[in-house]
Design brief:
The complex is a heterodimer of chains A (379) and B (292).
Chain A: H1 2-29, E1 35-40, H2 47-67, E2 75-80, H3 85-98, E3 103-106, H4 110-123, E4 126-129, E5 144-146, H5 152-165, E6 170-176, H6 179-195, E7 198-205, H7 213-222, E8 226-230, H8 235-244, E9 250-253, H9 260-266, E10 273-278, H10 287-300, H11 306-322, H12 329-337, E11 342-344, E12 347-349, E13 361-367, E14 370-378
Parallel strand pairs in A: 1-2, 1-3, 3-4, 4-5, 6-7, 6-8, 8-9, 9-10
Antiparallel strand pairs in A: 10-13, 11-12, 13-14
Chain B: H1 3-30, H2 37-54, H3 59-87, H4 92-114, E1 130-132, E2 135-137, H5 139-161, H6 163-173, H7 175-180, H8 185-210, H9 217-232, H10 237-257, H11 263-277
Antiparallel strand pairs in B: 1-2
The chains are: A alpha/beta (379), B mainly alpha (292).
């Protein structure tokens, strides 16, 4: 009995070993295949966003294969990260060492990207995130790119909008006391004061604060022309309490407000609030966008959302850089830095020396609980 | 500076003293810092949200059943866990660690069931509040102040004049002696957990009605409640009310004159000042305790 078991284990070991010995030979035969890694949240809380990105990415690959038959062997290998940094890192290791991907797309959240960045730098693997927006990714490394603008960009665009479009001279600033809030508010203040505006009062609060009544009163007493709110989960409550206190000044905020849960909490308080948002419009007259929307609708049966568009552009950019440079990641990296004004469905993309982009963004407004465009293209 | 600040102070004072009293009741007899009480506060709000929004039960019935269920839950936790710990004459330190563990479990369960985003129950539209002496106050905020004041007065009467309330005070002042006099201290402790948890549930419901609720919301309110209790002198009911008033006033003034991010820091500064200079609260009275 015991002997039999040992022999059995031995046999299994031989089979497994043989399999691994034979494996590399197989992949040598497939040398032509170019593999692109992708790490997205395909299950868990934010799986919806991951799926949208994946749809857009697959569509872009399909279109590219049709247009370039010589590249029909190119493929994207998806790994699920559940938006958790730990899982993202192991997915990254699998893709870079087992699948030998030279370029990996993804990291949905900033924390995923930041935890993968050091490994990407060390192994010289290009990492491009479609969605990570934390300012600290700017300095994360030479091989790290993203196709979404840094959060700081929100501050720039809003300063311009407030001063030139709304003609506000005297603005109150209310921000959450963390990296996100501090980053945007600093950029906003600089820009707004450069244009000639004045910050009437600035107040900050700890994240997860519930009661804003007292700081809202101190803002109300200064009677500013406008109020810029930089908050995350507190947005709904803040807008609600602002309305209940009869503070009717023009209000503008960050793109996170486009969330039905925020509007549910804020109720009428969210009405006529302006915010900046990546400009992508399903019914745009732009030919590139028109084609994308009809292709997407044919394939998936519904209209693409912003993330679908970002996924589409991400793969478009990747393939453009990969086209003649697939043999080394260094070449891919250089090709990415050399991209100038890639005309995609989310506007023009070119990377700066940090691998960051500035994108065309628009201004939206909430009317009767609905998110409407106010200015489509604002730069 | 306006009358609005006084309204804000009154509003926060009512919720924090209500939380403080709910904690006072269980601390007085249980004699340990029940950290899991903050999850009980949150659950009061979450259960109401659940019944009202998921099952479409009318708001008064949702509130009523939430209070009952949360009260029973607090009672069960005491009965199945802390009663046994107490029987084995565990030190307070272990009780606090156990309570912290239960808090983490309960908070995670809330996260799993209801998610981490903020939940709210909206009664009517969000609109400009009623104007009262130049200050704005919404209907629900008026309800909060009235309900809290009624409950504070009722709790005072409950402790002073009812049989159970008197027993609680007896157990609080000397457990062994009250056992000798025929009071079943375990029984009384259980009751105080039931009543305390039900009061906490009411506080949670008032919070979710006015602002919103996340799984960690209860902790902040419990912290303020405990600070109010320490300022007022542990075991001193009227001191607790005064402590809540001092704390809330200081916090609002610091938010008004400096910044809102200093609200928590102000609470800590006051707590430390009192712990160093007036460890028995501002009344400074040592509780009379009959020693055997």
């Amino acid at each position: 009995m015991k002997k039999g078991m040992i022999v059995g284990i031995f046999l299994i070991a031989i089979v497994v070993l043989g399999y691994f010995v034979l494996m590399p030979k197989q992949s040598e035969n497939e040398k032509e295949v170019i593999k692109i890694g992708a790490i997205l949240p395909l299950s868990g809380d934010v799986a919806v966003y991951g799926k949208s990105l994946q749809n857009g990415m697959n569509l872009a690959l399909e279109v590219f294969r049709e247009e370039n038959p010589e590249y029909k062997d190119i493929l994207i290998i998806y790994e699920d990260s559940k938006a958790e940094p730990k899982l993202a890192v192991s997915a990254f290791q699998k893709l870079s060492s087992i699948d030998n991907c030279k370029i990996i797309l993804g990291g949905f959240s900033s924390s995923e990207v930041l935890s993968m960045a050091p490994i990407a730098e060390k192994n010289k693997v290009v990492l491009i995130s479609p969605t990570a927006s934390s300012p600290s990714i700017t300095s994360a490394g030479d091989y790290i790119f993203r196709t979404t603008p840094s959060d700081n960009f929100d501050g720039e665009i809003m300063a311009k909008f407030a001063y030139y479009e709304l003609s506000l001279k005297d603005v109150a600033l209310l921000y959450v006391n963390n990296d996100y809030g501090l980053g945007i508010s600093k950029v906003f203040m600089n820009k707004f004061e450069n244009y000639g505006g004045k910050i009437a009062i600035q107040k900050s609060f700890e994240s997860d604060t519930k009661d804003f009544k007292t700081i809202l009163i101190s803002i109300k007493e200064k009677n500013p022309d406008g109020l810029y709110i930089i908050a995350t989960s507190e947005l709904g409550n803040l807008l609600k309490q602002k309305t209940e206190l009869g503070l009717t000044t023009k209000t503008f905020t960050v793109g996170l407000v486009e969330n039905h849960k925020v509007v549910e909490v804020a109720g009428k308080g969210a009405d006529s609030v302006f915010y900046s948002y990546p400009s992508f419009q399903v019914n745009s007259s732009n030919n590139v966008v028109k084609e994308f929307v009809s292709d997407y609708k044919n394939k998936y049966g519904n209209n693409p959302d912003v993330l679908g568009a970002y996924g589409y552009d991400l793969v478009g950019i990747t393939l453009m850089a990969l086209k003649d440079n697939s043999e080394s990641s260094e070449k891919i990296k250089t090709a990415l830095y050399n991209i100038i004004d890639y005309q995609g469905v989310t506007g023009k993309t070119s990377f700066d020396k940090n691998g960051d982009v500035s994108k065309t963004a628009g201004i939206k407004i909430i009317l009767d609980g609905k998110f409407k465009w106010f200015i489509n293209n604002f730069n | 500076m306006s009358f609005q600040i006084i309204i804000n102070i009154a509003l926060q004072f009512s919720i924090i003293s209500l939380v403080g009293i709910s904690f006072f009741l269980i601390f007085n007899t249980g004699k340990y810092y029940a950290i899991h009480h903050s999850a009980i506060i949150a659950l009061g709000g979450y259960f109401t949200f659940f019944f009202h929004r998921k099952f479409g039960v009318s708001l008064p019935i949702s509130i009523f059943s939430s209070i009952i269920i949360t009260g029973l839950l607090g009672l069960f936790i005491e009965f199945f866990i802390f009663k046994n710990l107490r029987k084995k004459s565990s030190e307070t330190f272990f009780m606090i660690i156990a309570s912290l563990g239960i808090y983490v479990i309960m908070q995670n369960l809330i996260s799993i069931f209801w998610g981490d985003d903020s939940k709210t129950i909206r009664v009517g539209e969000v609109e400009v509040g009623n104007i009262f002496l130049g200050a704005y106050i919404t209907d629900i905020q008026i309800v909060i102040i009235i309900v809290s004041i009624i409950l504070i007065v009722l709790s005072l009467f409950f402790l002073k004049y009812t049989n159970l309330g008197k027993k609680m005070q007896a157990v609080s002042s000397n457990e062994e002696l009250s056992n000798i006099f025929g009071i079943n201290s375990n029984h009384v402790i259980l009751w105080s957990f039931g009543v305390g948890s039900a009061l906490a549930a009411i506080a949670g419901i008032l919070i979710i009605l006015d602002t919103d609720m996340t799984p960690s919301t209860g902790f902040k309110y419990l912290f303020y409640g405990v600070v109010a209790m320490i300022i007022g002198g542990v075991g001193n009911f009227k001191g607790l009310i005064a402590g809540a008033l001092i704390l809330v006033t200081a916090q609002n003034l610091s938010a008004y004159y400096i910044d809102s991010k200093w609200m928590d820091a102000t609470a800590y500064v006051i707590l430390i000042l009192f712990l160093v200079w007036k460890p028995l609260g501002f009344s400074g009275k040592r509780l009379r305790k009959v020693e055997i």
